[in-house]
Please model this.
Amino acid sequence: MKSYKNHIALLLIAAVLFSIPVKAQVLATKNISLEAARKVVAEAVIYAKANNAPGGAIAVVDAGGNLVYLERLDNTFAAASEVAIKKANTAALFKAPSSKLENSINGGRQALITVGHTFLQGGIPIIYQGLVIGAIGVSGSASAQQDEDMANAGAKAKID
Model:
């Protein structure tokens, strides 16, 4: 009889626990819009013109690394667009400048090469309200440093 009462008590407790509604935890995220991506690219182009960049492909990706907007300046080599997209993708997914990862490889962390991303200078995360909402990648200017400088200029664009 005692065992029977224990089983009933456990069933009642289980019924109560399973009837309590469970609230799912949902994370609040932000992502870059097409309009904001165009502003980012416009700032990078202003920097390019002011600093005599001979060309450049400028790509903006969303927080997931997917292409939102791409602009290719005149006199840019053909593969620059692909490289710019990959630099931006790397910066968005790692939430860090692609140069940081390039420097890690150059500093002896060659295992990063096997990850399958583009660890070249010129990809910069775009941060809005403390969150990475996308990234900009630049390729095809006068140098790797100028790629990064153009990307930094774009990443600082006012997108409110």
The chain has a mean pLDDT of 89. The helical segments are 2-19, 34-50, 80-94, 98-106, 144-155. The CA atoms of residues 8 and 94 lie 53 Å apart.
